[in-house]
Amino acid sequence: MPWVKVAKTADIPDGGIRPFSANGKKIAVAHIGSEFFAIDDVCTHAQCSLGGGTLIDFEVECPCHGSRFDVTTGAVRFLPATVPIEKYNLKVEGEDIFVEI
């Protein structure tokens, strides 16, 4: 799978999450401390954008119905969602963020 540049580190404030598109795939990138994480941007419950959600520790809360997903694994942490989201490999080179899509 190719590595695709999706953002600059400055595009995502610490404690924030933002939606991006990479090779036609909607992803969300979270910035927590010195780490970045890439997940599917689409909630498995109601197909809302997780990039518009809120980070609570290492979980993103969907803005539509409050489902929560672990940004480190994609696992569901809070209902109503029951299906996990995809987590993607991510690397930072200098100021550039790359996701393996």
Account of the protein in words:
The chain has 101 residues and is mainly beta. The protein has one domain: Rieske Iron-sulfur Protein. Helix content is 0%, strand content 50%. It is built from no helices and eleven strands. It has strands at residues 3-8, 16-22, 25-32, 35-40, 54-56, 59-61, 68-70, 76-78, 87-88, 90-93, 96-100. The strands form three sheets. A four-stranded antiparallel beta sheet has the order 2-3-4-9, with no helix packed on it. Strands 5-6-7-8 form a four-stranded antiparallel beta sheet, with no helix packed on it. The radius of gyration is 12 Å and the shape is globular. The termini are close together. The mean pLDDT is 96.
| Broad shape | globular
Q: Given the structure, what is the number of helices?
A: 0
Beta-strand content bin:
over 45%
Rg to the nearest angstrom? 12 Å
Q: Tell me the name of the CATH class.
A: Mainly Beta
Describe the main β-sheet briefly.
Answer: 4 strands, antiparallel
List keywords for this structure.
101 residues, mainly beta, 11 strands, four-stranded antiparallel sheet
Short characterization:
This protein has strands spanning 3-8, 16-22, 25-32, 35-40, 54-56, 59-61, 68-70, 76-78, 87-88, 90-93, 96-100. With 101 residues, it is mainly beta.
Secondary structure layout plus pairing:
Elements lengths: L2 E6 L7 E7 L2 E8 L2 E6 L13 E3 L2 E3 L6 E3 L5 E3 L8 E2 L1 E4 L2 E5 L1
Antiparallel strand pairs: 1-11, 2-3, 3-4, 4-9, 5-6, 6-7, 7-8, 10-11
